[in-house]
């Protein structure tokens, strides 16, 4: 007979890992399926608001998370994204990129990912000049001209970092003004090697093998700028495509109640993939703990023999 | 023992994980920090045909990204 897990956790960021630790301590038969370990935490720069650490880098905190979950010997399958889940009777079928699994309860903690531009050439030039991680790949563009797409905090943060590495930095935003914090906008505006292009939609990324430039549409005029690097910083989208039968809000986040329950019984959700307003590492971790305890409670109640209410 | 070179940046989490993985397995490697060695960026791009880090060069076999399965296979772990 095919194995039925008590719990499958989707994702191994702070929410998924904490859920895993709690599940292990409750001795639940649990499997974690994930793309990577640490999630967005691994990509965060400096973390100064995670209780117990006055200062830690995101990468270090992610590796602490990994050590912690591995200590409990939970099965964590990395490089295995979940594609869909479906409830059939009391069983939830979880389909990943590699296999199919069954579970009695599921916690979705799949987090968020970078929003894609939707411009022509975006896929072809990924890692060939186009990147979604300025912190990681920035140093490769030393002495080159680059464009940062976006006008929010993460875009300006990336642009300001890049001014120290690249020759010329363009900030390209489709909005008519920058939306980042005023202090950052002022800094960007007075930095000599930054050029800000407002009201411009990025239409195409081009080059022979590596990026050589981008085509913009600014109002009625088209513009071409020659850059060797394109940094896409236009926000995040929840990894919630896998949850088709579950209620989501208008930005695709999974709707949960205060007990981390989704609209589908037996399926819980935690962390940045949910509609919980605050997106913080420590909040994701806390929500993960809640979800595991709720899942445990749900399974215990299911296993109890039904009460015969007519006897008395 | 096979000669392992890793091209990395100090701020890339998968570079750190790859290096930790190799250390934990007791594998010696040469770490090329491309943010400090500009001339080696071109070398990395030529070898891997792309600009993302980490890149591992295990005696001519090129691995892009922290691909545990391939690293283990090539190193016979």
Topology:
The complex is a heterodimer of chains A (312) and B (77).
Chain A: E1 4-10, H1 14-25, E2 30-33, H2 40-43, E3 46-47, E4 56-57, H3 58-71, E5 75-77, E6 82-88, E7 91-96, E8 100-108, E9 112-114, E10 130-131, H4 134-137, E11 145-149, H5 153-162, E12 168-173, H6 182-190, E13 194-198, E14 200-206, E15 213-218, E16 221-225, E17 229-232, E18 236-238, E19 267-269, H7 281-303
Parallel strand pairs in A: 1-2, 1-8, 2-5, 8-19, 10-17, 11-12, 11-17, 12-13
Antiparallel strand pairs in A: 3-4, 6-7, 7-8, 9-18, 14-15, 15-16
Chain B: E1 4-8, H1 13-24, E2 30-33, H2 39-48, E3 55-58, E4 61-64, H3 68-75
Parallel strand pairs in B: 1-2
Antiparallel strand pairs in B: 1-3, 3-4
Labels describing this entry:
heterodimer, A: 312 residues, alpha/beta, FAD/NAD(P)-binding domain, 2 domains, five-stranded parallel sheet, 7 helices, B: 77 residues, alpha+beta, Glutaredoxin, four-stranded mixed sheet, 3 helices, 4 strands, 39% helix, globular
Order of helices and strands of chain B: EHEHEEH
In the CATH classification, which architecture of chain B applies? 3-Layer(aba) Sandwich
> What helical percentage do the residues of chain B reach?
25-40%
Oligomer: heterodimer
Instruction: Supply the number of helical segments of chain B.
Output: 3
Q: Which CATH-level-2 architecture of the largest domain in chain A? A: 3-Layer(bba) Sandwich
Structural class of chain A: alpha/beta
Portion of residues within helices of chain A: 10-25%
- Neighbour order of strands in the largest sheet of chain B: 2-1-3-4
Describe the main β-sheet of chain B briefly: 4 strands, mixed
Classify the beta-strand content of chain B into a percent band.
Answer: 15-25%
- Care to count the β-strands of chain A? 19
Number of domains of chain B: 1
Stretches of chain A where pLDDT falls below 50 for ≥5 residues?
A: none
CATH topology (level 3) name of the largest domain in chain A: FAD/NAD(P)-binding domain
Query: What's the domain count of chain A?
Result: 2
What is the radius of gyration of chain A?
A: 22 Å
* Gyration radius of chain B, rounded: 11 Å
- The CATH class assignment of the largest domain in chain A is Alpha Beta
**Mean pLDDT across all residues of chain B, rounded?**
91
């Amino acid at each position: 007979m095919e194995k039925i897990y008590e719990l499958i956790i989707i994702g191994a960021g702070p929410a998924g890992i904490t859920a895993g630790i709690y599940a292990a301590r409750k001795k639940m038969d649990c499997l974690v399926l994930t793309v990577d370990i640490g999630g967005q935490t691994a990509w965060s720069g400096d973390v100064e608001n995670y209780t117990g650490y006055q200062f830690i880098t995101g990468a270090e905190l992610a590796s602490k998370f990994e050590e912690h979950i591995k200590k409990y010997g939970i099965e964590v399958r990395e490089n295995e994204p979940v594609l869909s889940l479906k409830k059939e009777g009391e069983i939830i079928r979880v389909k990943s990129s590699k296999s199919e699994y069954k579970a009695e309860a599921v916690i979705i903690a799949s987090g968020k990912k970078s929003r894609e531009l939707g411009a022509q050439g975006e896929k072809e030039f990924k890692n060939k000049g186009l990147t979604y991680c300025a912190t990681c790949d920035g140093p490769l563009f030393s002495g080159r001209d680059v464009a940062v797409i976006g006008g929010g905090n993460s875009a300006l943060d990336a642009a300001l970092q890049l001014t120290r590495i690249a020759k010329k930095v363009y900030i390209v935003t489709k909005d008519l003004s920058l939306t980042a914090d005023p202090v950052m906008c002022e800094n960007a505006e007075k930095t000599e090697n930054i050029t800000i292009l407002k009201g411009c939609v990025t239409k195409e990324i081009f080059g022979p093998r590596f990026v050589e430039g981008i085509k913009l549409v600014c109002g009625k005029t088209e513009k071409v700028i020659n850059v060797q690097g394109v940094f896409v910083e236009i926000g995040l989208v929840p990894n919630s495509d896998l949850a088709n039968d579950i209620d989501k809000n208008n930005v695709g986040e999974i709707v949960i109640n205060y007990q981390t329950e989704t609209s589908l019984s037996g399926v819980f959700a935690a962390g940045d993939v949910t509609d919980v307003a605050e997106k913080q590492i420590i909040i994701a971790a806390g929500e993960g703990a809640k979800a595991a305890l709720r899942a445990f409670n749900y399974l215990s109640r299911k296993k109890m023999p039904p009460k015969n209410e007519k006897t008395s | 023992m096979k000669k392992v070179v890793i091209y990395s940046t100090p701020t890339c989490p998968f570079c750190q994980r790859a290096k930790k993985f190799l250390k934990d397995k007791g594998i010696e490697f040469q770490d090329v920090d491309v943010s400090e060695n500009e001339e080696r960026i071109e070398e990395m791009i030529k070898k891997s045909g792309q600009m993302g880090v980490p890149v591992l060069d295990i005696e001519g076999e090129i691995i892009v990204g922290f691909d545990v399965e391939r690293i283990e296979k090539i190193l016979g772990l």
